[in-house]
Amino acid sequence: MTRIIQQHPILAARSLPRFVLAVLVALLLATSAADAALTTGACLAQKQTVWGDLRKCQAIERAKGLKGKPTDLAKCQTKFQEKLTKITAKATKALIPCRYGDNGDGTVTDYDTGLQWEQKTPDPPYPGALPCFLSDEHCVNFTYTWGNLSGCPFTGCPNGTAFIDLLGHFNSCVNTSGAPVGGFAGHCDWRLPTIEELQTIVDKSVPGCGTGSPCIDPIFVPTVAGFYWSATTGAALPNTAWLVNFYDGSVLGFYSKTFDFAVRAVRAGL
Question: What's the pLDDT at 35?
Fold first, then answer.
């Protein structure tokens, strides 16, 4: 290219735009090919890395605070969200799902919110098996109460079967040399989701949403097309709690904590 410019400056001036255009086209084609080759696994791995970057950034900013220096945790969140948005855009362009990952241990990780969710077991789990409510604590047909008003008649304490039976069993851990052993999927910090968290897994684009099929990604396996408890107590009526109706994705409040509804446990996963 240098020789062309030296020997034929006019020709070089005319051909340079075409050369630059050709380079740009080649780069665009290469980028498109890379996007098209993007897989769900590779995309989720990128999001996993971004979560790691976020935690590192937050640790650095907190360390600054301990030293009496100015901190900017908001900066970490902004950069994280920008990176996450770019990865999601690439996945959309490549026409691949890139949000949920099945962990293979009865849980699903949401790589957009960082939450790890319990999966449910269908009824029956396989042909000829016992109904899941007789053999599996994750049975999709189980329902639970939020609280027992006899203990806290005006507020409804978190002492219903959702907390005592389900979460109590999930978080059954025995400390060995200071390290927790046991727990559902190896963790001992399962809880009920807040109403805001529960809303994040509503997906009204799923075929059949609002007409009989649950409004949620199928990766969660079976889901009741009905009410699921959240951990959020009603502000005006503290003996009630908020819930999500996965039949149509609606959010409802003022339901007595003594009612029996489905529950899906959650924890901070990333």
Answer: 52
Mean predicted confidence (pLDDT) in 126-147: 84
Q: In sequence order, which residues have a C-beta less than 8 Å from that of residue 73 and are 6 or more positions away? A: 58, 61, 62
This prediction's pTM? 0.83
Q: Where are the domains of the chain?
A: 2-100, 107-268
Long-range contacts, stretch 101-110, CB < 8 angstroms, 24+ apart: 101/44, 102/219, 103/185, 105/185, 105/186, 106/138, 106/184, 106/185, 107/184, 107/185, 107/269, 108/219, 108/220, 109/269, 109/270, 110/200, 110/201, 110/269
CA nearest to 219, candidates 133, 100, 105, 139: 100
